[in-house]
Amino acid sequence: MTTETPPRKAARRDNRTLRAAARLYAVQALFQMEAAGQTVEAVSTEFESHRIGVADVESGATMAEADRKLFRTLLEEAVNWQASIDQMTDRALVAKWPLDRIDPTLRALFRAAGAELTQTTTPPKVVISEFVDVARAFFPEGREPRFVNAVLDHMAHEARPEAF
Fold first, then answer.
1. Which residues of the chain have pLDDT under 50?
2. Contact assessment for residue 127 and residue 73, using Cβ atoms and an 8 Å cutoff
3. Structure pTM?
4. Are 94 and 102 in contact (CB under 8 A)?
């Protein structure tokens, strides 16, 4: 039994929501970088100025707020370590499906997840679970979330074997 007060529980829940949004935005930003050939600085500035937590005047909707520090970390580390993350992803994929043949959204997802697995202290099981949820957001009816789970499990065992 925990002695945690309701406001503290709400704060933890809010922090998880902000971190989940940061992961989703990081995948979108990495996708945009690849599709449009933009730099990490340009995309990061665009997302932080025009997307994350910004209200759309026309629709009245507000984009979700996010843990901006995690967003920047995932973006920067995915770019800084892209070659080694891509190699790790390739080893996790079956031989007939090299990284350059898979959906660009999945490539972005694997890069963001790989950055979090290799460059942060987030427990690997949390990283896997969170990025499977991101896959569900992009592919709600598809088999991709199961595929993401299998690939990330392989990557996590390689990157952080001591965690298992």
1. 1
2. no
3. 0.90
4. no
Structurally, how many domains does the chain consist of? 1
Residues contacting 69, CB < 8 A, separation 6+: none
Which amino acid is it at 53?
Answer: G
Assign residue 45 the CATH number of its domain: 1.10.940.10
Residue with tokens 């679970």: 129
Rounded to the nearest integer, the mean pLDDT of the chain is 92
SS (H, E, C) 59-98: CCCECCCCCHHHHHHHHHHHHHCHHHHHHHHHHHCCCCCC
Phi, psi of 157, deg, nearest 5: -65, -35
Domain that holds residue 135: 7-163
Cβ neighbours of residue 105 closer than 8 Å, sequence gap 6 or more? 27, 31, 138, 139
Measured in whole angstroms, the distance separating CA 78 from the mean position of its chain's CA atoms is 10
Residue 4: predicted pLDDT = 54
The model's pLDDT over 109-152, given as tens digits with 9 standing for 90+, comes to: 999 999 999 999 999 999 999 999 999 999 999 999 999 999 99
Facing residues of 55 across strands?
Answer: 62
Sole residue written with tokens 């100025």: 49
